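Predict the assembly for these two chains.
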Amino acid sequence: AQKVTQAQTEISVVEKEDVTLDCVYETRDTTYYLFWYKQPPSGELVFLIRRNSFDEQNEISGRYSWNFQKSTSSFNFTITASQVVDSAVYFCALSEASDTGNQFYFGTGTSLTVIP
Amino acid sequence: DGGITQSPKYLFRKEGQNVTLSCEQNLNHDAMYWYRQDPGQGLRLIYYSQIVNDFQKGDIAEGYSVSREKKESFPLTVTSAQKNPTAFYLCASSVQGLSYNEQFFGPGTRLTVL
């Protein structure tokens, strides 16, 4: 079973629109960590944020914000006033504290295209 | 500049040949990882190493081999036993192999089997 589900395969928005990328995870651990990464066309994954399972505070960083809800096992990512430079593939990932190998479980990614 | 380097960026291989992908980091990280990325499938873990001279299989280790003789280096060999090796390969590292450590990624190597 997929531990991390990103149901949106591709999204297109017009520049300056807001867009939310969905991430739903599955784990039996009480301690776990969630991550978001951005993969621009160059291919290298860029770390955006980490959230631990005990911290449900939403976070805002500039135009980016994250909404973590344990009740729905979701960790959604919103880009406000999107820009062309936001075009990339975005991955959500889960890491479980019980896993001694620090294995990341990645979703299949959401490809975002921002149209100028 | 600290970071992870992977070489080459593009690699072509004839069917039946082994090929080695390079991964070097100067971040002084203990843990290193190899992932394979296929279209629509996200990233899948091939091998990881939490310390020098030790490594563990990931979800899709068959047809691959690794070594970790030095802290900064974690080369991946794609053997002829790998049935479908054409993919994008990403190397990553983290401070320690702990669940809360974010992983930092290299630029990737795109392998094509001809």
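The CA atoms of residues 4 and 25 of chain A lie 4 Å apart. Chain A touches chain B at residues 4, 9, 31-33, 35, 37, 42-47, 50, 52, 91, 95-97, 99-104, 106-109 (CB under 8 Å).
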